[in-house]
Write a structure and sequence with these properties.
By secondary structure, the protein is an alpha/beta fold. The chain has 2 domains: 224 residues, Rossmann fold (3-Layer(aba) Sandwich); 175 residues, 3-Layer(aba) Sandwich (Rossmann fold), CATH 3.40.50. 42% of the residues lie in helices and 13% in strands. A 6-stranded parallel β-sheet has the order 2-1-3-4-7-8, with helices on both faces. Strands 11-10-9-12-13-14 form a 6-stranded parallel β-sheet, sandwiched between helices.
């Protein structure tokens, strides 16, 4: 089978592509191991050929003059059409296209009789700002079709207006629900949102994401070189945050925690727009127990996970199926996470992980103290979480499921 993977960031570095890029890499690896031919289409990066459309992001320009390209990217449609003339495929598997490549590419696939599958990595079809988040906390006021709320000054303002207009256009045209033959959702929560938004129930399937646990034993990983800027002491308790340093991930809550737990090392591995602000705060508050090493490689991150007493996930936004939670669980580490509905599909508090009230620094500190103080409970929780994730995310079973969806996918008719 010839399968075309489509995503805005395909071929970019892991630091840019993020968790979606890691998922696509794993998916492609498993498909190729079964003899499938996998092709790629996405936005052009530095040094890419002219066969790919240029990267376009309306939220960066915020110009109303570029709104149409956000709704319909003619360049992306034309270049995908040219690719398919040279290299016909059986199935197209979409990831994050939205206002970068845009749904302009969907009729191109349908005209050629190509089945279309789409993995739902975030909430962009339901929330114009994609995070279900305002500055004052979690917000789901746009559900199911009140997208104009994104234009409120308390949400995204003018940028939200453009995103809301684009979302309304796609909703009324039903371009996603019309042309996508199968939606793959990593959580039951996402399945419910899609059905609520009007997706035909028979197009919605629960398909968990691949999880990549560390490739060695904890003792082997513990001997790996520590990333630059991270000074480790083996007997020291350590809490690890791994992810993008941006507002929705709430890294500032980790610095609040550092002030409350001065004897615990807290490492924030990752980069993002808040890096400078966090470094300034660490210096101003003399938080000597905090380290910010920036982006770390997969091997280095595996080593940090293996040495962590627990892994923390304080996100203010409603996470979907975060690798920052699932990979540490698969590695046998206790995870402490903000209590959002999708995460409860894995974490039962006190059994397979620990939960705290989102954005509540005191409750976060309380749960962390309990986990750090009780090694037997921490180990029991970690083992139960590991068993759950390895069983539920077995790569052989997941690939079987995806292959079956590919085989039964029939291209939607153009009406």
């Amino acid at each position: 089978m010839r399968i075309l993977q489509i995503d805005k960031f395909l071929g970019c570095s892991a630091g840019v592509a993020g968790g979606t890029g890691s998922y696509i890499d794993e998916l492609q690896r498993h498909l190729r191991s079964r003899g499938h031919e996998v092709l790629q289409f996405g936005c052009a990066g530095e040094g890419d050929s002219a066969d790919r459309p240029g990267f376009f992001d309306f939220t960066a320009t915020r110009s109303p003059l570029t709104l149409w390209r956000m709704i319909h990217n003619t360049e992306a449609a034309n270049k995908l059409s040219a690719l398919l003339r040279r290299q016909p495929v059986d199935v197209a598997h979409l990831h994050n296209i939205y206002h970068h490549l845009s749904p302009s590419i969907l009729p191109v696939l349908a005209r050629r009789g190509i089945g279309v599958v789409m993995t739902m990595h975030d909430y962009r079809l339901f929330c114009p700002t994609k995070h279900f988040l305002r500055p004052d906390g979690v917000c789901m006021r746009c559900r199911p079709h009140r997208f104009y709320r994104a234009a409120s000054p308390r949400c995204a303002g003018w940028a939200g207006l453009g995103a809301a207009i684009e979302t309304y256009v796609q909703r009324f045209a039903r371009r996603y629900f019309r042309y996508v033959d199968s939606f793959l959702c990593p959580t039951q929560f996402m399945c419910r949102l899609l059905r609520e938004a009007g997706a035909p129930a028979d197009k919605v399937s629960l398909v968990r994401n691949y999880v990549s646990p560390p490739g060695g034993t904890p003792s082997e990983l513990g001997g790996m070189a520590t990333p630059p800027g991270v000074a480790m002491k083996s007997p020291e308790q350590m809490l690890l945050f791994a992810g993008r340093l941006s507002a929705e991930k709430a890294p500032g809550l980790c610095l609040d925690l550092a002030g409350k737990l001065p004897d615990v090392k807290i490492i924030l591995a990752g980069e993002g727009p808040l890096m400078g602000q966090l470094l300034q705060r660490v210096a101003a508050e003399k938080l000597t127990n905090v380290e910010l090493p920036g982006h770390v490689s997969k091997v280095e991150l595996d080593g940090l996970i293996a040495r962590a007493t627990a892994v923390i996930l304080p996100s203010r936004a409603i996470e979907n199926s975060p690798a920052a939670m699932l990979e540490p669980m698969a590695a046998g580490r206790c995870v402490i996470a903000a209590d959002h509905a999708p995460l409860r599909e894995w974490i039962t508090d006190g059994q397979t992980g620990r939960l705290f009230c989102p954005a509540d620094g005191e409750d976060f500190a309380r749960v962390c103290r309990e986990v750090l103080a009780d090694a037997p409970a921490r180990q029991r929780i970690a083992q139960a979480g590991q068993s759950l994730v390895l069983r539920r995310h077995d790569p052989t079973r997941l690939t079987d499921q995806i292959e079956e969806i590919y085989r039964r996918t029939k291209p939607s008719a153009i009406n």
